[in-house]
Amino acid sequence: MPIIKKYTDLIILLLLVLVLILLLIIFTDMHVAKINRNIQQTAIIQL
Fold first, then answer.
1. Higher confidence at residue 32 or residue 5?
2. Torsion angle, alpha carbons of 37, 40, 45, 47, to 10
3. Rg value, the chain, Cα
4. How far from 33 is each of 5, 12, 13, 46, CA to CA, in Å?
5. pTM above 0.85?
6. d(C-alpha 36, C-alpha 47), whole Å
7. Cα 38-44-47 angle, rounded to 5 deg
8. Which stretches within the chain are classed as H helix?
9. At CA 28, angle to CA 22 and CA 31, rounded to 5?
10. 14-45 per-position pLDDT tens digit
11. Does residue 3 have a pLDDT over 80?
12. Rounded to whole angstroms, how far apart are CA atoms 40 and 33?
């Protein structure tokens, strides 16, 4: 069963990469939302 072992490692690696990508998307989304909120606050202050 070495073939299954090889594919298991590959699947685990792919899942890890997928989770890292999802985390990156979530963090960048939160960061962009924070920047947008700051921009809105400065725009309100300037009015």
1. 32
2. -170
3. 20
4. 42, 32, 30, 20
5. no
6. 17
7. 140
8. 2-46
9. 145
10. 999 999 999 999 999 988 888 888 888 887 77
11. no
12. 10
- CA separation for the pair 3, 11 (Å, rounded): 12
Q: How many CA atoms lie within 13 A of 44 on its CB side?
A: 6
On the question of pLDDT at 47 being above 70, the answer is no
What pLDDT is stored for residue 1 in this prediction? 63
Tracing tokens 């947008």 back to the chain, one arrives at: 36
The tokens describing 28, both together, are: 């960048």
C-alpha span between 42 and 10 (Å, rounded): 48
